[in-house]
Amino acid sequence: MRKVKRSSRLVEMTQYLLSQPYAIISLTTFAERYQSAKSSISEDLAIIKEVFEEQGLGQLQTIAGAAGGVIYMPAMSKTTALEKIQTICSELEQPERVLPGGYLYMTDMLGQPSLIADLGRMFATAFAGRKIDVVMTVETKGISLAYATAACLNIPVVIVRRDNKVTEGSAVSINYVSGSTKRIQTMSLARRALKEQANVLIIDDFMKAGGTIRGMMDLLLEFKASVAGVGVFVESGEIDQEERLFEDYISLAKLTAVDMKTKQSTVIPGNYFN
Description:
Blueprint: H1 6-18, H2 27-34, H3 38-54, E1 58-63, E2 69-74, H4 78-92, E3 98-99, E4 103-104, H5 113-126, E5 134-138, H6 143-153, E6 157-160, E7 171-177, E8 184-190, E9 199-207, H7 211-221, E10 226-236, E11 250-259, E12 264-269
Parallel strand pairs: 5-6, 5-9, 9-10, 10-11
Antiparallel strand pairs: 1-2, 3-4, 7-8, 11-12
């Protein structure tokens, strides 16, 4: 690559780091890419590191040793995250979003790229530092959340199906009891989709009693996999904690009350902000 001005180099290096989260990038890579001395590259990285931290965009960590370099870890400050969630909560409280059964219509919001990117960064920040190999979700509405989170962590996504697809080969299927409806349902995961003993982060869009997530946990046992964490966009506060099928999870928003007659609902920031 031809030698570029420092200002241009800073912009390109920043973009390169943003597109390669949690990947170790050696100084040699940048030095050869921009035909610059490693000392100059180190100075540029120090500037980028300072800006990332000041703007709450994440951390740029230096890895020592012959195989070292720098690694970018995306993050969002609690203050910024809370401001964004409060805006989201207000949007979710619109009367026309109230659905039968105490659910909220969220499909349109889960289709907004900028909002999904913010939620994914929040989850990535919440679970930073944990050893995670894949992000898992169940079809369908949680898929965009899972991909946004995985993009920040730079790891694959595994999607649990409601039924086995011929195109996915042999699969493991289990029956589970829906926590809210108490109905027996089935979920399936292709054997090739997940390696044994993987560390899995489960992401879902909405949780009442947690039957679907409990089902995914049980499914992971068939793969000898471990649950590295559970993140939900919105949890229902109408479920007593004793009725919850598991305890350890992080929620970004909480639906605390729904009046079906008046179509009024109350949504507050989730336990991540406690």
